[in-house]
Design brief:
Strand order of the largest sheet: 3-2-4-5-1-6
Number of domains: 1
Mean pLDDT: 86
Structural class: alpha/beta
CATH architecture: 3-Layer(aba) Sandwich
Shape: globular
Radius of gyration: 19 Å
Number of helices: 6
Oligomer: single chain
Low-confidence stretches: none
Number of strands: 6
Length: 201
């Protein structure tokens, strides 16, 4: 299924990180792919330590997109496309390895004469993709819209996908199973308080 966490309110990335931790707690492989950020936010260092979670972020970071030169935008666009493709390839390999591990485990149990008394507890999904700030990357034409929509149209039933950011278009919204709008009623930024380390960073 596809989740969208959108809007101007705080909590989009926080919700996505929580979903990653929950999935990893059930041994579900997670690819956490973060667009338009520098990889220095607090969640990255923790997620990188969790077994089964792969974290990807851009090779280059030039700050706010509105202040980037044309050359910097070109490099960022290349980074975003490459990171997206790498995330998909990595997960395909992970899913294949999972199947092989399961078959090998069952074969070992069979040879050892182990009789399973009951079906082991299994999660309802086999993998999770999280694309943090991808909606902004698409809106700013730093990631190919068609690349994303083609991927979303071909998601296997057992794979969960989370997209965060702002202003998804009607095509992407129509594909989603969950849509959560983070509405900002109040935020310290409105009073000139910058993002704080350990809270927003």
């Amino acid at each position: 299924m596809i989740h969208i966490y959108q809007g101007n309110g705080k909590g989009k990335t926080t919700a996505a990180v929580g979903a990653a931790v929950r999935a990893a707690g059930h041994n579900v492989p997670v690819v956490f792919c973060q667009f338009l950020k520098d990889g220095m936010s607090g969640e990255i260092s923790i997620l990188e330590k969790i077994p089964g979670v792969l974290v990807l972020f851009p090779e280059h970071f030039f700050g706010w997109t509105g202040k980037m030169s044309q050359e910097e935008l070109k490099i960022t666009r290349k980074d975003c496309d490459a990171m997206f493709v790498k995330a998909i390839k990595t997960m395909k390999i992970s899913l294949k390895n999972q199947v092989k591990k399961q078959i090998a485990s069952e074969e070992r149990q069979r040879k050892a004469g182990v009789i399973m008394q009951s079906e082991p507890f299994k999660p309802d999904i086999e993998a999770m993709f999280i694309f943090d700030e991808i909606l902004d990357a698409v809106n700013k034409e730093l990631l190919d819209h068609d690349l994303l929509t083609h991927f979303l149209l071909r998601i296997p039933e057992n794979v969960e996908v989370i997209l965060t950011g702002r202003n998804p278009d009607i095509t992407i919204l129509s594909m989603a199973d969950y849509v959560t709008n983070m509405v900002k009623d109040k935020h310290p930024y409105d009073d000139g308080i910058k993002a704080r380390v350990g809270v927003e960073l």
